[in-house]
Amino acid sequence: MAKKKRTTQMSSEGKTELAKAIAEKSESFAKHYENVELKVSKFFRWISGWLDKLLFNQKHGKIVALILAVLFFVILNADSDAIFEKSLKNAETLGDYPVSAIISDEAYEVTGLPEQVKVRVIGDISDIKNVKQQKNLRIIANMTDLTEGMHEVKLTTEGAPSGVDVVLEPSNAVVTIKKKSIRSFTLGFDYVNRFKMDSIYDLSEPELEQGEVYVRASNETLDKISYVKALISVKEDYTKDFETMATIAAYDENGDKMDVDIIPSKMKAKVKVTKPSKNVPVTLVPNGVIPNNKAIESYTLNHPKVDIFAKQSVLDNISELPISIPASTLTSDREFSMPLIAPNGVTKISESFVNISVKLADAKETILSGIPIHIINTLDGFSASFVNEENKSTSVTVIGAEKVIKEIKKEDIKVYADMSKVDKPGTYEIELFVEGKNKLASYKTKEGKVTIKVEEK
User: Fold this and answer.
1) 313 or 28, which is more confident?
2) Dihedral of alpha carbons 87, 88, 89, 95, sign
3) I need a surface site. Which of 64, 111, 210, 213 has the fewest CB within 10 A?
4) Which 8-state DSSP code applies to residue 265?
5) Is the entire prediction scored with pTM above 0.85?
């Protein structure tokens, strides 16, 4: 037999109690929800008020704006910095590379092409390393299809691996192409590194294979050439005649070397090496007036003669080596040392210093009459003559130690009028100058000036 299913039926009172309990729970939940909602609403109102005070307050607004800007910058650049750092690993600047011009340099002259350009390579690190190690990269300016005139030339590269991109700066150039001409120039010479040789040696004019060379360039460039020289390099050990190959170079009027074709570019040069010298006496020349009416009676030197070294043309014009001393210091007999000063053109003196012993005596005077007056340095195109023939000679007073002035003759004295500053016809009072061979005495003329007439020829 099948069992009967049990059912429980709730009484009406039970149902009422259950409904009351559910209603009470619902009311409690509603109140709790309303309380939470109120608290959340208060919290957000507090936050909103705080943000209003912070953001819209002038005192704090700038600080907030700065903080926000920094945050945005960090966020936006975080990825780009990583990308940039990654790209640097595959790029490198190699520096300056020379530019090779492809054109007939015998027929054309090119100006405006840079000598070097900056090279940057981009690619794999291994490929960049190969470029640096193999050194096959060349920068080319191909102008084989261009004629005379101005052109823009794109610079290209050779020798770079296919996976490497080469960036040139600049990447093109504006050039001017001109046809070349040939012109002959007289050849001069110059010694290079002359200072390396001992100054006692002199170099003769070189014997070159030929006296002129040919220069190839545009007519405009040829017109700027001022001179062409054979540059002869001198070495320290050149003490005898030598032969060497001289480099030929052309220069403009400012002395700047010019980039031109010279035929031939080198030439054999033969040079003679000499050691010209001359033994000359050392003489004492008092400068000024010796105190106490004294004069130099005599002096002695530990080196009365010395050897001087110079070109022969310089030596021919030097007969003595004077030493100037301040006369005001000669208050009594004394001994002192003086340096030997090389005259112009003299490269070396055998002695650097000389010891001098001076003996003084009372100064005396004597008069020498009939000393002729010479007119010198008259300018070209003019003639000069004395207004009075009586003024052709004068008397000279000689002052010095008695022993010294007794030995002085009229022939040892020269009186002259210098006309180098007179450039117009007329009659002039010209100052007289007097010199004597013996520098221990002083000289003065009776007349300080002479009247001279200047006329055009």
Assistant:
1) 313
2) positive
3) 210
4) S
5) no
